[in-house]
Design goal:
Elements lengths: L16 H8 L6 H19 L4 H21 L10 H17 L8
Helix pairs in contact: 1-3, 2-3
């Protein structure tokens, strides 16, 4: 989850795969590579650790992470900036908990 809020690396730092994925989406030629990278580096490893509909839940988590990064880094949505981080992190954690483990006990039925 923290990757959704990390800044881009500087200098010789290792590139953030999620940031690369988000920025590569704009290139139609890169789409097959991005699709394969997303499936093998994000969805498959998470799906292997999950029971039941693991692939679907892993894909949904990946979609949320990518969406967060797009809103934060590409669209620069003010409500997703560093100032909002402390308030967003628990909400995002709850979202991922619900996706990965089922409804939160506090969720309305």
């Amino acid at each position: 989850m923290r990757r959704a809020f990390e800044d881009e690396p500087e200098g010789d730092a290792v590139a953030d795969p999620l940031a690369l994925l988000v920025r590569s989406n704009a290139s139609p030629g890169a789409l097959p590579l991005v699709r394969r990278f997303t499936a093998t580096e994000f969805i498959a490893p998470l799906a292997e650790r999950l029971e039941g509909a693991g692939a679907s839940r892993a894909a949904l988590v990946t979609a949320c992470l990518i969406g967060i990064r797009i809103f934060r880094d590409v669209l620069a949505v003010e409500a997703m900036n560093d100032t909002a981080r402390s308030g967003l992190e628990p909400l995002i954690a709850d979202l991922f908990t619900a996706i990965l483990y089922g409804r939160s006990e506090n969720a309305p039925t």
